[in-house]
Amino acid sequence: MSFFEILEKNGWYFFTTLLSGWPATLMVAAGALVFALVFGLIIALMRISTWKLVRWPSTAYVEFFRGTPALVQLFVIYFGFPDWGYQPTPIQAAVIGLGMNGAAYISEIYRAGIESIHRGQTEAALSLGMTPASAMQHIILPQAIRTMLPPMTNFAIVLLKDTAIVFAVGVLEVMALARQLVTETLTSAPIYLMAGAMYLCVTIPMARIAARLERQRQAWH
Amino acid sequence: MSKAGSGAAAGQPLLKIQDLHKRFGLLEVLQGVDLDVARGEKVSIIGPSGSGKTTLLRCINYLEKPSAGHIYIDGTLIGEKKVGDRYVHLTDRELARERQEIGFVFQRFNLFPHLTALGNVTVAPIRVLGLSREVAELRGREMLQKVGLGHKADEYPERLSGGQQQRVAIARVLAMQPKLMLFDEATSALDPELIGEVLRVMRQLADEGATMVIVTHEIQFAGDVSDRVIFMDQGRIVEQGPPRDVLGRPSEARTREFLKHIQDR
């Protein structure tokens, strides 16, 4: 059968099957993003601390998670955590794994954003009687967010694509279903191409948003 | 402007600096400065760049941590407390509390670009003093009016001229009702034609009885508004006294040389 005959015959079946993987893909991506946003901020604040004892573990964290493959991290969490008494579900392992990995990258986006704000802003806030924490919350972060939004959106795109590896710990997301279809029907190109097209349908609009944010970030209002 | 002395003795200086030293690495920027400023007094500090005047000012509200020496405002130690016979640094929260009483006007304004003029003037009263938005905005508009910018309340800093930005910065300080105001070369970053409007506001504050310590290169202005002029060089106070003495007939050679240098500019 030719490529098009296969698509004509099984296309709708492929499409609906792959579509049923999207809830898991989106759930893992969204969960990992929230995890990375929260945990990454903590790591970033630790990294800019004046205390060595606080700074050191956060630097080690970033080096470790950026320096080892995400798949290795996933396996450690899914297959290694049970040894320490916690058996995560595939989705939990995927969210924690991609989340912890993402936190390392996102903490650098936070840090660059925070450090892009002139020192005088902190000094002005402190001189008005704000605590360093309050100055960070009300003066520095609201300004830094404008610098951080475009790289954050890019990061979200990368994260969405990276969910394609979590089939390895048994999450039934788009890629896992694609592989199942391939073994089931013994055709591969049409299925993987369709899966890729589906990812594009989500990532292209996201990239558009990132580009728009990039253009807007100079203006204050 | 300044709050009533909180139980402080009448004769006690509002600001007292004792043997202040500040080192940056090997460089000793302040080499033992003693200074008393009375309530309502206006003191101008002049001197060549690198003489330590800005560092002295920044030490007063602990933007720089002194290497040695002590600072008191209304009899209260700034930045540290005495435990037994040792001095220990204050926590962030305690230090923030002390800084509320000290207004600082920066050379480069340092307005918050993400907030409007009114937002700049109300953020600290709301976040630090815990005022409601309504009360803070009422007070904020009043302060903007005072510096002649009531009509610019909703503008963002980038839409304001340098002179207007600095006046907003002064209003931002006034909204906290500080006991003491510090001005760090408040007009040095301004185009010449914008200096006058800022100096007018500062003069108005002086007339209302604020306690002010002013680091400046505007010798004429220093002479007009100050009760006392201090000449600093190489980390020390070289000479001080009424403006007509220090600026008119200085007794120290270094002061004469500096003033001559300024006039020749």
Quick summary:
The complex is a heterodimer of chains A (221) and B (265). By secondary structure, chain A is mainly alpha-helical.
Individual helix count of chain A: 9
Number of helices of chain B: 9
What is the fold named in CATH at topology level of chain A? Answer: MetI-like fold
Coarse shape of chain A: elongated
Describe this entry's structure for a reader.
The complex is a heterodimer of chains A (about 220) and B (about 260). Chain A is an all-alpha fold. Helix content of chain A is about 80%, strand content about 0%. Chain A has one domain (about 5-220): MetI-like fold (Orthogonal Bundle), CATH 1.10.3720. Chain A has helices at about 5-20, 20-45, 50-65, 70-80, 90-115, 120-125, 130-160, 175-185, 190-215. The model of chain A has no long low-confidence stretch (mean pLDDT about 90). In chain B, about 35% of the residues lie in helices and about 25% in strands. Chain B has helices spanning about 55-60, 90-100, 115-125, 135-145, 160-175, 190-205, 220-225, 245-250, 255-265, and strands at about 15-25, 25-35, 40-45, 70-75, 75, 80-85, 85-90, 100-105, 180-185, 210-215, 230-235, 235-240. In chain B, strand 6 (about 80-85) and strand 7 (about 85-90) form a beta hairpin. The longest helix of chain B is centred in the last third of the chain and has 16 residues, at about 190-205. The interface between A and B is medium-sized, with 22 and 29 residues.
Core attributes:
heterodimer, A: mainly alpha, MetI-like fold, 80% helix, B: 265 residues, alpha/beta, 12 strands, 36% helix
Q: How would the blueprint of this fold be written?
A:
The complex is a heterodimer of chains A (221) and B (265).
Chain A lengths: L2 H17 L2 H26 L4 H16 L2 H11 L9 H26 L3 H9 L4 H31 L11 H12 L3 H28 L5
Helix pairs in contact in A: 1-8, 1-9, 2-3, 2-5, 2-7, 3-5, 4-5, 5-7, 6-7, 7-9
Chain B lengths: L14 E10 L2 E11 L4 E5 L6 H8 L7 E6 L2 E2 L2 E4 L2 E4 L2 H8 L2 E4 L11 H11 L5 H14 L15 H13 L5 E5 L7 H16 L3 E5 L3 H7 L2 E6 L2 E6 L1 H6 L4 H12 L1
Parallel strand pairs in B: 3-10, 3-11, 8-9, 9-10
Antiparallel strand pairs in B: 1-2, 1-4, 4-5, 6-7, 11-12
